[in-house]
Amino acid sequence: MKMTTESTRTSRIWIATAVACAALSLAACGDKSNGTTAGEKVDAAIAKTEQAGAEAKEKVDQMASEAKAKIDASTASGEATARQGATQAKGAIDDAALTASVSAGLAKDPDLSAIKINVDTKGGVVTLNGPAPSATAKARAEDIARSVQGVSSVDNRLEVKAM
């Protein structure tokens, strides 16, 4: 019988230990040393995490919206710049073509030296610089420049000098 009593005693010790552990665990969950239980602390932590997640999502959404607006504005600005650049390039090509046409017309005139007359064109306005052998030749150079299609006006700065 001594064996059975010792076994019973060991079992009782284990049961008492298990009950004490369970009581301590339950006491810890209900510990209100700082005014809240462990369960309430877990619930508060979960609520704070959910709130932080919601705030982070809102901030990311706002930043994405701002980035999209900046990209849209940049794209519109880039398109406008490209159109302006194309217009300027077309204008430069048109001006170069007008300069070439005026120079070719001056070269056909036997009294005018197309090599000595400088022809510049900007925005369809042709400027003539250099020498002209006479007032008549100066006027003829201006007429030749005006006759080129696309020339809007002529600034005749030719100086009458005997060649």
Notes on the structure:
Residues 55-71 have a biased composition (Basic and acidic residues). There is one protein chain. By secondary structure, the protein is an alpha+beta fold. 69% of the residues lie in helices and 13% in strands. The chain has helices spanning 2-29, 38-108, 135-147; strands spanning 118-122, 125-132, 153-160. A 3-stranded mixed sheet has the order 1-2-3.
Give a quick set of tags describing it.
163 residues; alpha+beta; 3-stranded mixed beta sheet; 3 strands; rod-shaped
Would you report the number of β strands?
A: 3
What is the helical fraction, as a range of percent? 55-70%
Range of strand content: 5-15%
Kindly name the structural category: alpha+beta
Distance between the termini: 148 Å
Strand order of the largest sheet: 1-2-3
The helix tally amounts to 3
Alpha-carbon Rg, integer: 48 Å
Q: Give the topology string: H per helix, E per strand.
A: HHEEHE
Shape: rod-shaped
Instruction: Characterize the largest beta sheet: strand count, sense, and whether it forms a barrel.
Output: 3 strands, mixed
Q: List low-pLDDT spans.
A: none
State mean pLDDT (0 to 100 scale): 77
